[in-house]
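Task card 7
Instruction: Convert sequence to structure tokens.
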Amino acid sequence: MGSTFTKSTLPLPPLLYPSREKKTQTWMSGLLKENKIRSIGPRLYTSVPSQDVEITVRQNWAEIIAHLFPEALLGYRSALEFRPTKQGEVFLIGSTNRTISYPGLKLSFVRGPGVLETDPLILGIRSSSMARAILDNLSSTKRTLHRSLTVEEIEGRLETLLEARGESDLNKLRDQARNISKKIDREKEFRKLDSIIGGLLGTRSGADLRSKSAIARSQNKPYDRIALEKLDILFSHLMTAPSPILKESIQGNDHFRHKAFFESYFSNYIEGTTFEIEEAEEIVFQNRIPEQRPKDGHDVLSYFKTVSNPNELKITPNTPEDLEALLKRRHKILMNARPENAPGIFKTRPNRAGDTHFTDPELVPGTLEKGFERYLSLEKGLSRAIFMMFLIAEVHPFLDGNGRVARIMMNAELFSEKLSTIIIPTVYREDYLLSLRSLSRRNRPDQLVKMLTRAQRFSTLDFSKYASVLKSLEIKNWFKEPSEAMLIE
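Output:
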């Protein structure tokens, strides 16, 4: 809102600007005399209380530039971030070097070539094109470092463009930068950019790259930076919060098989493969696959065969290659009746669940490898189990069956250390899913860790006598929907 309001009965705009119109000049002069507005810097006035001035100025930084400096060009880091820095600084390209300060806002002008045809109009002001802004950012020296993004940050933005739009758009950016560099005397900077893009595309050595993510991509091991941030949050939490040690005190084949049965039943239930408990008993213990639902029946049976095999559950990965092979083998067993889901093969197209987008296919191997590096540094047992489960759930390396594979991998970590394995009963399903989303969407690891720690505790039961434990689980509401009852421990 500018200074064209001339009726004092209307609410005053928060910021006002000088005008050549006689009527507006008279109106603003009256407001100044009445102390309804005051000057807060060169050619800028405000009507807001003193305590609100800085935030008002910051929020309207683009409007201020558009009104007071229409010939200026948004440049350097500001043309890539489109907001003031934490210190309230915005960088502009103009005819002279100068600085103009307002409360909460510092406009730093850098002398440079004027507006080009390729520089778009954004937020009412001219902004350097992405290609031009990157060239200017790459020109920084120690003296001018504050006005530029780091090379690592530039590499990150180029990598994001590559992931989102593909090689063609990255090459298009390079072509634009080549043409622009000749017009603004940035040919040296273009050579830097050309080297970075060549590294990202794998057409040149990655020696010139600086960010770990970009180097990994140049080595054909790109990874999902967003997923890795969440994994790092969980890793840090697990490293600083010791996990309880709950030993599997009950031994015997009956205990092991019955617990594996209930794990299979409930793990499939989470994914929507639901049977009455009597039907599941026939599938697992009598190998009777329902004719109307053969694939669902095989899902339950295949899961049971995996988690009821002690030799299989003892296996945990020692290398990234082990992890990949183990995931593919267990997925192949689990999905053997569903060839449409590519059993044992990493996904070749993106997948999602609601608003959650999982790791892109080409980033799966690299992200698993980065996650594995963190996994190895964690204490064996529950910490590794939680981390492994979330790693698989967050990356979602397969078209389907990821949740079940994640829980199998989790319990293998526990079983291999002779610890009590975890079952997520139907009544606890929402707690499980919400805690996963809490970390995946809000970067909150504590709920996931608390949820699985509790699940391990209430899963530590004697499953030796089937009829007895079935009755106990019914009393504890394990088979109830979350909306029907609460878990009883």
